[in-house]
Amino acid sequence: MQFLHPSMLWSLLLLPLLFAGYLWLLRRKRQQVLAFSAVSWILRNMDIPSPWRRHVPPALIGAAVALLLFASARPMARVTLPADYMTLIMAMDVSRSMLAEDVEPSRIKAAQKAAKEFLQDLPRNIRVGIVSFAGNAQVVQHVSQDKEDLVSAIDRFQLQRGTATGSGLLLALSVLRPEAAIDLESVLYNPNPFGYSDSGNQAQAGGAKSLDTKPAPQARPPEPPGSYKGGAIVLLSDGRRTTGPDPLIAAKRAADLGVRVYTVGFGTPNGFIPGYEGYSFFTQVDEEALKGIAKITEADYFKAGSAEDLKQVYKHLSTQFTMEKRDTEITALLSGLALVFVFLALLLSSLWFKIAPQNSFKSSP
Prior knowledge:
The chain has 365 residues and is an alpha/beta fold.
């Protein structure tokens, strides 16, 4: 829990003083009690409440004072509230490994079906954009609320060679936060996509820079990871990165922009593509990289080994995006609770200690 005015917490030291003052009043009241010769007759003819009852209203007043002193520090708590609106970017792996049939009828068919059902379950206040990636990345559907357009975009997936997970993540991040001005040209159209060092070529050229080299963009101050409330990214992959930038570096860029990246590893360890271009080869999910992406961005990783697993993952994600967690000031809540305590103390006092002169004493014979 955080506080906007933490110095006001020192005011809680007044509570022991209030408690000491209450004990002093009780002791002073006992000392002022007068001895009557007919005390026994008075006690028999009075309605005396239970001894503990007289302490309940003061205790409620003390609790109300404590709540008000605590509220003066203006505490902030993370609460779950309905999302006003959100932009969700789905980054889908469309590499050839999605042809594997370890998930019936195939990984790509099961992923398409689960994604379309996921879109149907989303409320209208969530906008969705779709990015696909294989050897490179491309925007399949710009951000939209039209579910028919989104479903049609998923049906248009074309499988390609390679798995550029980092490229897909950076493109999804650029679509979600265009104001970040991510330089996609060097990522999506990299002449050295496999990441080989070109230091030798630079040395041969004398280290001279090209006249077309763009100046580096001004660095943005990093935002706290997970602090961006306007949207998130869901990245699904079934294989290991073979080209493009390191996805963990791309995840660090997303974290600096406060964007959470929820990752889904899809497929089984024994998945393989039989008879593709005369060869049969195994495809395995890079769980460590996907877990790393989720951890860096303070999101979650999900493992789906079947079509039903993937459906449950998407169902869980739909609840994540319907409700969002916010740091909200709870001063008004605490003040309202203190008012309830005061009202309850007054009510109990009027019920337990109501003076009724006609019933307090019986007339002497």
